[in-house]
């Protein structure tokens, strides 16, 4: 119990506290959340990723287990969510929702600060790769699954959405600099590092503010319970088993399990809104999964440390 409380106090509650502050303050000061998100996505997060990737001490070869595991994990979790929806007799429109909610974790705004608090600094390299890959998969495969079939937008055009912001190019540049062992000049590296250092707290604050600006609809307890069980329990459990089966190193195994246990990613709500796929239900699911995360994420961090 002492270990559980220690993890909660030192790792997960600080994360949720910042998000809760954003949620509360949004009601009072009415921030322009869209502008903050653009700042995060177009400037601060790319600087954060570029700095940590370029300055990493590990060789680039260490990222490959995480990269190919993330792809396999994505392919395994999607049918699990879809099958659960069918077995529960939900309308066909909920199949893609359950599939994407199972696999798409908040590995950026929530996951990166979590890794900073719960793991050694070198694990940021691996979490950055997971974030980049999940972004690509969400705006390509995820958009293809959620979009109506009459949009006329192909998978290739959706793939281009991943490169509309500097996030993916920042990852590519950072990994290239690290692979070639090139260090940026101090006059360039320092501003990038300073901007990137603001990412974890600002991302969490913005996440809370964004949740406050979105109105949840009818909760639908049965369907909501299913989506929460899939995301907060089934996804990390399957990830753990899959990592063992694929013989992922134990320390990376822990990282991947904890990353999979983070709440549903907010980007999913944006796609559900755009394609009119039960947006209010998804917003409620994201909000409640975030509220529950201090307990569920703490439990998974504890389990990975014990076993």
Could you characterize the architecture of this molecule?
With about 300 residues, the chain is mainly alpha-helical. Helix content is about 75%, strand content about 0%. The protein is built from 14 helices and no strands. Helix 2 packs antiparallel against helix 10 and helix 12 runs antiparallel to helix 14. It is globular. It starts with a helix and ends with a helix.
Question: What keyword list fits this structure?
Answer:
307 residues; single chain; globular; mainly alpha
Please tally the helical runs, counting DSSP H or I stretches of 4 or more residues.
14
Mean pLDDT across the residues is 85
End-to-end span in angstroms?
15 Å
Strand-and-helix sequence, N→C? HHHHHHHHHHHHHH
What's the β-strand tally?
A: 0
Topology:
Elements: H1 2-29, H2 33-54, H3 64-87, H4 94-103, H5 111-118, H6 123-146, H7 155-159, H8 167-179, H9 186-197, H10 199-212, H11 221-245, H12 250-260, H13 266-274, H14 279-306
Helix pairs in contact: 1-5, 1-10, 1-14, 2-8, 2-9, 2-10, 3-4, 3-6, 3-11, 4-11, 5-6, 6-13, 11-12, 11-14, 12-14, 13-14
Question: What is the compact description of this entry?
Answer:
This protein is mainly alpha-helical. It contains 14 helices and no strands.
């Amino acid at each position: 119990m002492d270990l559980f409380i220690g993890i909660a106090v030192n790792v997960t509650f600080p994360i949720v506290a910042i998000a809760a502050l954003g949620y509360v303050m949004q009601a009072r000061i009415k921030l322009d959340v869209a502008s903050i998100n653009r700042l995060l996505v177009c400037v601060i997060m790319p600087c954060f990723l570029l700095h940590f990737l370029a300055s990493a001490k590990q060789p680039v070869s260490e990222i490959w287990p995480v990269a190919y595991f993330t792809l396999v994990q994505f392919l395994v979790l999607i049918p699990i969510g879809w099958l659960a929806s069918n077995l529960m007799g939900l309308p066909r429109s909920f199949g893609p929702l359950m599939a994407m909610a199972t696999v798409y974790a908040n590995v950026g705004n929530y996951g990166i600060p979590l890794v900073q608090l719960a793991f050694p600094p070198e694990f940021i390299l691996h979490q950055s790769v997971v974030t980049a890959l999940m972004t690509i998969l969400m705006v390509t495969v995820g958009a293809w699954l959620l979009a109506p079939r009459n949009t006329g937008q192909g998978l290739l055009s959706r793939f281009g959405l991943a490169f509309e912001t500097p996030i993916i190019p920042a990852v590519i540049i950072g990994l290239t600099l690290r692979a070639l062992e090139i260090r940026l000049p101090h006059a360039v590296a320092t501003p990038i590092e300073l901007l990137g250092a603001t990412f974890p707290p600002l991302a969490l604050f913005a996440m809370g503010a964004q949740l406050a600006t979105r109105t949840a609809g009818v909760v639908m307890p049965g369907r909501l319970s299913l989506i929460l069980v899939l995301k907060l329990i089934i996804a990390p459990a399957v990830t753990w088993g899959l990592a063992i089966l694929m013989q992922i190193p134990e320390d990376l195994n822990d990282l991947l399990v904890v990353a999979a246990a983070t709440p549903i990613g907010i980007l999913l709500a944006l796609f559900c809104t755009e394609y009119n796929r039960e947006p209010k239900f998804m917003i409620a699911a994201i909000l409640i999964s975030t509220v529950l995360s201090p307990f569920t994420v703490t439990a998974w961090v504890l389990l990975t440390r014990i076993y």
